[in-house]
Design a protein that fits this description.
83% helix
C-alpha cells in the first residue's frame, strides 16, 4: 500500500508541476496579448487623433494671434468716436473669437486651456484698464493709448502662444 501511494505521488508530482508551469506560461501569454492589443488600439487612435489635436492647437494659436491688441486694433475699426462703444466692440470681438474656438479645449491639456483663457482675460483687462483713463475721450484716443501701452510690454496672448508651442513640441 505504501508502494502504491509512493507511485501515485511520483506520477502526480511531475504532472502537477507541469500543469502549474503550463498555467503560468499561459497566463503570461494572455497578459502579453492583452497588452499588445491595448498598444495597437492606442497606436491606431493616436494616429487618427493627432491631426485633430494639431488642428486644435493651430486654431487656438490663431485665436491668440487675433486677440493680440496690436492685431485686434488693426482688424476692428471703431464704428463711431464713442470710447465706450469701441471698448465694447473690442471685447465683443474677443468673446466671439473665444466662443468660436471653445470646443477645441477637449484636445488640449487642462494647463494649456487655462493659460489660453487667462490670456483672453488679460487682454480684456488691458483694454478695460486703458479705457478707464479720463484723458481718453474718443475711440481713436483709446486705440492710440492701447497701442502705446503695448509698446512697453508683450501682448498677454504671447504667454499662451509660448505654452501652445511648448506643448506641441512635446507631442513630437
Amino acid at each position: 500500500m505504501e508502494e502504491q501511494l509512493l507511485n501515485v505521488v511520483m506520477y502526480s508530482v511531475p504532472s502537477i508541476i507541469t500543469g502549474v508551469i503550463a498555467y503560468l506560461f499561459f497566463r503570461e501569454h494572455m497578459q502579453n496579448e492583452e497588452e499588445r492589443r491595448k498598444f495597437n488600439i492606442v497606436k491606431t487612435l493616436s494616429k487618427e487623433s493627432l491631426p485633430v489635436r494639431l488642428q486644435a492647437y493651430e486654431r487656438l494659436a490663431l485665436f491668440l494671434e487675433r486677440i493680440s491688441p496690436n492685431k485686434l486694433l488693426l482688424r476692428v475699426a471703431p464704428l463711431s468716436s464713442n470710447k465706450q462703444a469701441y471698448e465694447d466692440l473690442l471685447i465683443k470681438s474677443i468673446e466671439q473669437e473665444f466662443e468660436h474656438n471653445l470646443s477645441q479645449q477637449i484636445y488640449l491639456s487642462d494647463d494649456c486651456w487655462t493659460i489660453v483663457t487667462a490670456s483672453k482675460s488679460a487682454t480684456i483687462q488691458l483694454i478695460r484698464k486703458v479705457s478707464m483713463s479720463e484723458k481718453i475721450d474718443s475711440a481713436s484716443k483709446l486705440r492710440e493709448a492701447i497701442l502705446n501701452e503695448m509698446l512697453d510690454k508683450a501682448a498677454p496672448s504671447n504667454a499662451g502662444l509660448h505654452y501652445i508651442k511648448k506643448e506641441v513640441a512635446e507631442i513630437w
